[in-house]
Amino acid sequence: MEDLRERNSEMEFSATAQKLENALEQLRQEEMRRYGKKLKPEETGLLEEMTKSLLQRVLRQPLLQLQAACCRGETGPLMDSLTELFDLKDHPAATA
């Protein structure tokens, strides 16, 4: 039973992490479309690279904390908070 609970917790962690990444990536792309029109192609490439890097840096610590909570079997409150804060319930877990 314990293995099943661990596996379920890991699956929930993965789905929530993917939803969070997808939601923030969608926001990043929307902002790139909005501001990219005002930039030269080489500036757009640099901004693309910079915003992707920034997104990864912003996501790193929350996902590490969520993963640690998963290892402790305490993911529920954190995943619920992330889902509520970022309105993730309607976001897909997989990228289309």
What does this structure look like?
This protein starts with a helix and ends in an 11-residue tail after the last helix. It has helices at residues 2-36, 41-72, 75-85. It is elongated and about 55 Å long. With 96 residues, the protein is mainly α. Helix 1 (2-36) runs antiparallel to helix 2 and helix 1 packs parallel to helix 3. It has a domain at 41-82. The chain has 3 helices and no strands.
Entry keywords:
single chain; 96 residues; mainly alpha; 3 helices; 81% helix; GluRdtase_dimer_dom_sf; Tetrapyrrole biosynthesis glutamyl-tRNA reductase dimerisation domain-containing protein
Strand-helix topology:
Blueprint: H1 2-36, H2 41-72, H3 75-85
Radius of gyration: 16 Å
Question: What is the residue-averaged pLDDT?
Answer: 86
Q: Termini separation (Å)? A: 34 Å
What pattern of helices and strands is seen along the backbone?
HHH
**Using DSSP, what is the number of strands?**
0
SS-based class = mainly alpha
If helices are DSSP runs of H or I spanning 4 or more residues, what is the number of helices?
A: 3
The level of helicity is over 70%
The main sheet comes to: none
Low-pLDDT stretches are none
Shape category? elongated
Q: Give the strand content.
A: under 5%
Protein name: Tetrapyrrole biosynthesis glutamyl-tRNA reductase dimerisation domain-containing protein
Domain Tetrapyrrole biosynthesis glutamyl-tRNA reductase dimerisation: 3-88
Organism: Hymenobacter cellulosivorans
Pfam families: GlutR_dimer
